[in-house]
Amino acid sequence: AGEAMRTEISTAAAFVTRLLRAAGGIGEEQLRRFREYLQEALREHYKHHWFPLVPSKGSGYRCIRINHKMDPLIGKAAGMIGLSHERLFQLLPSELTLWVDPFEVSYRIGEDGSICVLYESPQPGGKATKPLESRTSCKEEWRIGRSSPSKNYMMTVSS
């Protein structure tokens, strides 16, 4: 399973690293090490819980969650580079769910945020999945702040 889950794990670790980079105050070398430690922790954690033939099996076990409690895998990787849980809570969204499944990695910020797909690959022998309509609206959503955007939030783009 190690080779099979490389892309999904790499995508998930890169996403969390990107969130930390966007928050600022952490050096590139620390971020690089964090990403490596997180990838290693995920690989180890998922080793016997990766089922490409039944991708949803074990999904709860593979879910990375911050909900006023720090996900232990993120906490462990951060600890390896000297970041405390307190500092992590300042840098990352207070509510983040990241699903790392065979052929798909997706996330949600806030309890009622949109589910956004980071990585999607057709299953071998399966039909290609339809692209999600919400994909474009999700693209930059992780930049919008620490929790769910308010319902009347408007984003303007000027060139």
Give a brief description.
It contains six helices and four strands.
What brief labels describe this structure?
BTG-like_sf, alpha+beta, BTG1 protein, 4-stranded antiparallel sheet, BTG, Actin, Chain A, domain 4, single chain, 4 strands
Architecture overview:
This protein is α+β, with helices and mostly antiparallel strands and 159 residues long. The protein has one domain (5-120): Anti-proliferative protein, N-terminal domain (Actin, Chain A, domain 4). 38% of the residues lie in helices and 14% in strands. The protein is built from 6 helices and 4 strands; from the N terminus they run αααβααβββα. It has helices at 6-23, 28-46, 59-62, 72-80, 85-91, 135-138; strands spanning 64-67, 95-101, 104-109, 116-120. It has a 4-stranded antiparallel sheet. β2 (95-101) and β3 (104-109) form a beta hairpin. The longest helix has 19 residues, at 28-46. The chain is globular and about 45 Å long. 25% of the residues are buried. The model is unreliable at 127-137 and 140-156 (pLDDT under 50).
